[in-house]
Amino acid sequence: MNTILTAPDDATRTQLLMLAEIIKLVSRAGDLARLDIANPPPATAHGIGTWTRVTGALVELEAMIAVYRQLGGPDLPANVESFARDLRRMDTKPAQVVGESVSVLGQLQNVAENFPARANKLGMATVSGQTRRAASGAPG
Length: 140
Hints:
0% strand
């Protein structure tokens, strides 16, 4: 299993850092939904939905997923993207967000535990790779 500290290259390390951020955002959305259950936010002026902060966390999550994809990280489970996208609807109940967040976190834990080791897909020389070559005396 790769960890952020033992990742074989900068690209994998960056992907793992982004995956960690995705995990934090899913957890944050669940926590915000729990707060909405304990202290319901006021209704919107139109009476459809509430002034929940869950929506903002889900939008941020969707953007983070897009960045992760651009970095070439392994595919995420389908429920991760649907969590970010589908639970932003006005009529979504906080309890549904809490339940789905637990499921998504379980799937993301599986991705993290089985994160593949791979060569730098970006085809760029990395600073850590150059440092290792210099230390070993190998030509760059």
